[in-house]
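Justification of computing resources. Each target in the renewal requires a structure prediction run like the one illustrated here; the chain below, 374 residues long, is used simply to show the kind of job we budget for.
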Amino acid sequence: MISSRAISFLFVLLLRPIVGAPSTEQRHRFSKIYAFGDSFTDTGNTHSTTGPYSFGYVSGPPYGATFFHHSTNRYSDGRLVVDFLADALSLPFLPPYFDRSADSSHGVNFAVAGSTAIEHDFYVKNNVTVDITPQSLMTQLAWFDNHLEEKGCKRRGSSECQAAIADTLFWVGEIGANDYAYSLTSTLSPDIIQKLALKNVNNFIEALILRGAKYIIVQGLPLTGCLPLALTLAPSDDRDDIQCCATVNRQSYNHNVILQNNLQELRKRYPHAIISYADYLGAHHTVMKNPAAYGFTEPLKACCGSGGGSYNFDLFATCGSPNVTKACSQPSKFVNWDGVHLTEAMYKVVADMFFSHGYCRPPFSVLLNAESQG
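Resulting structure tokens:
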């Protein structure tokens, strides 16, 4: 029979922490996220009065209806991938840069809907004025610099700068889709757009590294040819094996190949930085090949749109406009939300694929482990 003294001793052993296995609270993790990108990442920098052409109703319902139950100026019915990233790191949702009263201690979101990789001046000089959003990646970099200065970072390498960037994950959301859209309504060559856009993305990432960024995730473009907008505008015979626009998807694929090559060169030049590529196109394609496996019954039709038919999309009567005040009753069954942007359900699936199923290369766990080791 075990004595009461022995039982007490065993109880103490069970309660004593195991050496070398710190608790979740003790484990060192990212304390901040700085995010950049376009409408796929924007958590509120853009409002209806400043939004992209034909999508100028983001400040009202039915945007935000699923999770927040009101509009948060996110281009979806709920959360975005960057929101699920914050959840994965046990951090609050990122406030938009323009919300100057928000708590920025856990990071800031600089992404803007309609933002381009190429500077807006280039489009103005080429008489392309379809989009009213003048911001580019370099605009967001300037905002980031301003934010750092407000945190006391006035000289690179200073203790103030190191403190402002310490324990930070940099999230570069997909960017470039708006640039390619410009080539559809102008005489600008898609090849020129590709060259300039990728050059600017590369310069932007390098600029982050030079400012002290050590942990960076860069998203590629999704299957832009699967968006109802692209499918509505493309000829009906321009289709691939998943019934999306083959030409546009090929454009995104080629963009991503060059982007990955550029990231590899940056890794060689800056070996102290961990740069992970988030394979948006790969994740998107996996879902589109077998949407039912992920709970989707409508892979190509917009949940919040008009016109019915195969895509339920009309460029002149988009989500939230006077003619489109209601969305579908089950957004979780739809991949697409409003003809260009995705539903919360799809963003959640993509986020899970990024963070838990190997669609980040190197894997998300590599960044977590590297950061936890300092």
